[in-house]
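Researcher: Next sequence.
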Amino acid sequence: MGLLDAVRSLFSGEERKSADASKDLRVLLVASMEIVGAYGSIVEKHCGDATPSLKLPETLLPYPKETIAQAIANVQHAISNPSLHPMIEQVLEPEAAKRVLSPDFRKFLNDGLAILSFFVPLSEAESDRKKWEDLLPVLDKLGPDARARYEHLFKGRQTLGDKKSDR
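Model: Next structure:
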């Protein structure tokens, strides 16, 4: 039985057919949690509390977008399937497992998936940034409040030239 078959059988609620399937799923879950955690750190650092208003370069991501999206989907499937909760509790520390199984974490995963679309190729992110910077003179004419709101949105998104992380 391959990994994909093991995942399908466990996510669909079918009885496990081998110890290997459980082991493979455990490895997949741990890897997915690590990817989601690394991505979550990037989101916290570059998106903060504000909704992203600018496109961000994919070079900031710790893994390719597709890998992150798949990891999020894997974790979403695991936490939505009560039969997999014991496995989550086995592979994570008790507090981490409690946090992962919480409604807040489900919301974090959904938000993280939506935010992933703001990560684009570097050239597109730089073009978007240029457009925003061209808007500054217009904001200055509107008054200090308009400029302050803009700067709050732009805060933390000035690292477009950062080096690509090791994948």
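Model: Confidence is low (pLDDT under 50) at residues 156-167. The first helix runs from residue 3 to 11.
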